[in-house]
Amino acid sequence: MQQLQKLPIKVIYVEDDETVLRETASFLEKHVQELYIATNGKEGLELFLNARPDAVITDFDMPVMSGLDMIKEIKKRHPETPIFVTTTFENDTLHLTRAIEYGITQYISKRSKPDRLVESIYDYFKNDERFSFSLKLSYEGKILSIGEKFAFFLGYTPEELLLEPIELLIEPIPHIHNRHFLKRLEEQKDIEYAHCIFRKRDGSDLLLSGSAEFSVSGNEKIYTTRWHPIDSIVKTNKEIKGRLVKEGYLKSLMKFHAEISQDIITAFTVEEFLLGFIEKLPKISVGTLGFLMLMEGTSLKSIICPSYPGLSLKSMIQEPIDLNDPQSEKEYLPCSLAARHNQMVFVDDISHLPDTKLKKMLVQNCIVTVISIPMKIKLLNRPAGILTLLFQENHTFDKEELNLWQNIANTVAFGIESIKARLERDALIIKLDMMAHTDKLTGTINRHRGMELLEHEIKRAKRYRHPFSVIYFDIDHFKKINDTYGHTTGDKVLVKASETIRKNLRATDSLIRWGGEEFLIILPETSLEDAIHIARKLRERLERRSADIPVPITASFGIATWRDDLTLDALLHLADIKMYEAKKLGRNRIAY
User: Fold this and answer.
1) What average pLDDT does range 67-94 have in this prediction?
2) Fold annotation for 132-240
3) Which residues in the chain are classed under CATH 3.40.50.2300?
4) Rounded distance, CA 359 to CA 339, Å?
5) 95 contacts: CB under 8 Å, gap ≥ 6
6) Cβ atoms within 10 A of the Cβ of 45, count?
7) DSSP labels, 197-219
8) Which residues belong to CATH 3.30.450.20 in the chain?
9) For residues 56 and 85, what is the distance between their CA atoms, to the nearest angstrom?
10) CA dihedral in degrees (19, 22, 26, 27; nearest 10)?
11) 303 neighbors 296 (Cβ within 8 angstroms)
12) For the chain, does the N or the C end have fewer beta carbons within 10 angstroms?
């Protein structure tokens, strides 16, 4: 996507899909001044009436009030408001026809990238008079007036620029004095289309396009100009003055930089992120190849490289490169030097490299230029690794391109650290979640989590009219085991019992330690008859002797099946009663 100037507009974005909302809103915030979010048509309409935005973006299919109904209400009140529809139903001719009848501006497929939506909005607003910049000059080139929006855009207030020379704002062009621009105005009277380089207060340059008029009011000659950002903002004065060929390449680099920043968010592993990065290099420019090596201690290891035809880099750099080994034949490789000194190393002619198998292979594959760039970690005086670029044509670098590549390499380093941190955080969250829901001794579900599962199962049973049962069991004579053999043996009994039960349950069943020697089993989609069969099997498995436990383990089982008239407490009470019936019958029994 071409880099667009941020539009000074208010936009309401209405979307109920959280993933789409998060990704698209993040993109929109970079391109519009103010962004308001709503998750259904009702919220969107209320926001519209309160905020009076310049544009609305909406989906069709949403809860509470559909996007189509919201569009209808907005157009009734303010028919001039541009509305952009994002949809996955491009073939839904009924909705699209009605939306067009209501007067939508454009519809964009959600399958398109977010920049397609931004370009559509930009195309709509770029010629709107409200967003152009006004500037009036005297014949002598003094600023008579400047629009507040324009002044703020350049980093000033209108009062600061009043009667200042235009040279403060317009970048001088070699061989063309700024007075030439004013003279051209006087001679031509009107200029329908012009380009001019403006200098912002922070020193950055900006190319604007616009129109100009010359007029005489009494004895005063006045130049009235209006400007707006051109579609492609050229970053530096040098690019404007002669590097048009390289402009496309630099844009590709900037787009590439933006893409890998997004890849950091979506990649599941560091390896996936790095391989994806390297595989994209040839897309920037034909003949651009590369590989990555990661730092581990004082060595370069873990080469990340796709399979280039005829260029087996992995086979050439199989062994780690020890940066402290002065005898290594790889000591003077660009990647080694870049890692050792934490600086870029540029070789414009690989014939200057020492004779190695790697150099021979590079020559055979027409590699002419090599540059190795440290992937710097902020606040650390060492790189995360080295990015090495290989060019099959002679490649010269200017300062801006080198800065772009260094920023890209640093972003890769940031990506490595971020993904590692995210994976560690996710693992910790999973561990903490498991700890919060797990009984420490037996590894079964704890009572708090068990109550949540029971409440969920009752809601599901009510909704789908499906049965479920619970088995409440208690280890027989457990107090006697503790008193006779000690609590260590008692703990072993609990662990062994829970392991035995868990091994003989279905994947959908849940084993919960209810307290002490009492356990509860939730059996989804299970009738009383099936629950009895399961309980019999569990009782038989449990009473088998274990070599490391000196006493037999048995339990008494109570079964209850959920009915419409049973509350959660009533269901548990019924299972508890049945379990005590089993105890009264002589233990090691089942009651239902």
Assistant:
1) 80
2) Beta-Lactamase (3.30.450)
3) 7-125
4) 19
5) 60, 68, 87, 89
6) 22
7) EEEPTTS-EEEEEEEEEEEEETT
8) 132-240
9) 8
10) 40
11) no
12) N
**Does residue 114 contact residue 11 with C-beta atoms inside 8 Å?**
no
Q: Residues 210, 225: contact at Cβ < 8 Å?
A: yes
Given this model, what pLDDT does residue 171 score? 63
CA distance linking residue 472 with residue 558, whole number of Å: 5
Strands 383-391 and 369-376: antiparallel
Tell me if residue 375 falls in helix, strand or coil. Answer: strand
Token pair in block for residue 172: 């001088």
Report the share of the chain in percent with pLDDT over 90: 32
3-state secondary structure of 327: coil
Q: How far apart are CA 199 and CA 155, in angstroms?
A: 10
Contact 97, 124 (CB under 8 A): no
Tokens of 554: 């048995």
Half-sphere exposure of 45 (CA within 13 A, CB side): 18
Does domain 7-125 fall under CATH 3.30.230.10? My reply is no
Burial of 121 (0-12, 13-18, 19+ CB in 10 A): buried
Arithmetic mean of pLDDT, 349-356: 78
Given the structure tokens 């000033």, which residue do they identify? 156
In a 10 Å sphere around its CB, with 0-12 CB exposed, 13-18 middle and 19+ buried, how is residue 455 labelled? exposed
Distance CA 429, CA 431 (A): 5
- Give the E-state strand segments of 298-340 in sequence order: 299-304, 321-322
Phi, psi of 548 (to 5 degrees): -95, 5
How far, in Å, are 369, 374, 379, 384, 400 from residue 410 at the CA level? 21, 8, 12, 9, 15
What is the arrangement of strands in the sheet containing 190-199, beginning at the earlier edge strand? 143-146, 133-138, 220-229, 205-217, 190-199
pLDDT tens figures, 134-190: 888 887 888 998 887 788 888 899 899 999 988 888 865 544 444 556 666 666 667
Cα gap 148→413, rounded to integer Å = 41
Domain 244-419, CATH? 3.30.450.40
CATH topology of domain 447-591: Alpha-Beta Plaits (3.30.70)
For position 238, what pLDDT does the model report?
39
d(CA 254, CA 295): 26
The angle formed by the CA atoms of residues 122, 124 and 129, to the nearest 5 degrees, is: 100
Q: CA-to-CA distance for 538 and 556, rounded, in angstroms? A: 11
Write phi, then psi, for 385 (nearest 5 degrees). 175, -170
DSSP secondary structure letters along 136-159: EEETTSBEEEE-HHHHHHHT--HH
Helical ranges in 29-113 per DSSP H: 41-51, 67-77, 93-102
Residue range(s) in the chain whose domain bears CATH number 3.30.70.270: 447-591
